[in-house]
Amino acid sequence: MNEGDMEDRDSASDAAWEEARGRLFRPAPPPTRAETEAFTQRVLARIPEEAPAWTPSRWLMPSLAFSAAALALSLALPARDEDAADVASAWAAAPLGAEDVLGYTLEDL
Amino acid sequence: MSGPSDSELVSAAQEGDRDAFADLVRLHHPNVYGLCLGMLGDPAAADDAAQEAFLSAWKALKSFKGDSAFGTWLHRIAANKCLDALRRSARRGEDSLDAILEGGGSRSESVQAGGRGPEEAAAAADLSAKVMGSLSDEYRLVLTLREVQGLSYEEIMTVMDCSLDSVKARLRRAREAALERLRHFSGGGGVL
Q1: What residues contact B106, with CB distance under 8 A and at least 6 apart?
Q2: pLDDT at position A29, please?
Q3: What is the CATH number of the domain that holds B70?
Q4: Which of A2, A21, A25 is the mutation pick for testing B, counting most B CBs within 10 A?
Q5: Is B179 exposed, middle or buried (0-12, 13-18, 19+ CB in 10 A)?
Q6: What are phi and psi of A25, to 5 degrees?
Q7: DSSP 8-state class, residue B161
Q8: Number of H helices, E strands in chain B
Q9: Which ipTM value was assigned to this complex?
Q10: Which domain holds residue B47?
Q11: pLDDT tens column, B133-185
Q12: Residue A26, min C-alpha distance to chain B (Å)
């Protein structure tokens, strides 16, 4: 006799309930293996394929490419700044005289 | 030959192993489906509720700490899905078991009437559906867990999240209510 049967004897259930139980609860035949397999496949089909938060195969190459581009840019930019500085210094080296500025201003008028 | 245990499969599934989870579904499908069928009475509704239960289990798998057996934890999820389904159908003004009654019990043969002749089985299933359909959701649940699923009081405590005394009290009241309904639907005859 299992624990459940002992518990039932302690409860208020009696012969009437035992008979009622026989009439009310006849377990349905369990699903067949094929039904269970079909059910399992339906459940799996509804589970989304979840990619981990960080997937190397997905992010590694773009990350490396971006890093390389950033490095190349950082190496290239100082050279362009130098070019720009050269132009600016050339202009600065040949400032307009006050007379020139006055002349241009009068021409505009 | 024995495969990996529940706890081994759960550990693997918690790491995202879908094959391990598939094995858990295969192992527990009969019991979970049986619970849903006992609660809802309709095979299609039971299948839907069982699917929802397993999907919820997959989503919540990380939170499963093993304080109870995986099957008991799964029963709890399935019971909640069934209660949700019953509430939804009640809001829609229908009830799957009541619908069976109105339909003459034709669908209820698969519910709780194994091992009899077709006519006797149909009559028994019809009576069972009438009685179960007339009970509250709570009584239906505790009777299904105990009488159909054969869960222990301790397991029912976990599934219903209540004390042992509460389980005993609910079960006693549910049995009394079922007996009363059975007498009513049987026309008061018999030994009941």
Answers
A1: B100, B122
A2: 85
A3: 1.10.1740.10
A4: A25
A5: buried
A6: -120, 90
A7: T
A8: 10, 0
A9: 0.80
A10: 1-94
A11: 899 999 999 999 999 899 999 999 999 999 999 999 999 999 999 999 998 88
A12: 4
Q: Do A16 and B179 touch (CB under 8 A)?
A: yes
Specify if B90 maps to a domain.
Answer: yes
Q: SS3 breakdown of chain A: % helix, strand, coil, rounded to 5?
A: 75, 0, 25
**For chain B, what is the domain count?**
1
The structure tokens listed for A33 are 């293996």
CA atoms within 13 A on the CB side of B99: 14
φ, ψ (nearest 5 deg) of residue B62: -65, -30
CA-based nearest residue in chain B for residue A7: B153
Tokens of B96: 């799957």
Per the structure block, which two tokens stand in for A16? Answer: 């009437």
Q: Does B52 fall in a domain? A: yes
Q: Are the beta carbons of B112 and A31 separated by less than 8 Å?
A: no
Mean pLDDT of all residues belonging to chain B: 85
For A49, the enclosing helix (H) or strand (E) is none
Reading phi first (left if > 0) and then psi (alpha if -120 to 50, else beta), residue B69 is in beta
Mapping DSSP onto H, E and C, the string for B42-108 reads CHHHHHHHHHHHHHHHHHHHHHCCCCCCHHHHHHHHHHHHHHHHHHHHHHCCCCHHHHHHHCCCHHH
Q: What is the pLDDT of residues B8-27, one digit of tens each?
A: 999 999 999 999 999 999 99
Residues of B in contact with A24 (CB under 8 A): 112, 127-128, 131-132, 147, 178, 182
Nearest to B152 among A4, A16, A50 (CB): A4
Is the residue at B53 inside a domain?
yes
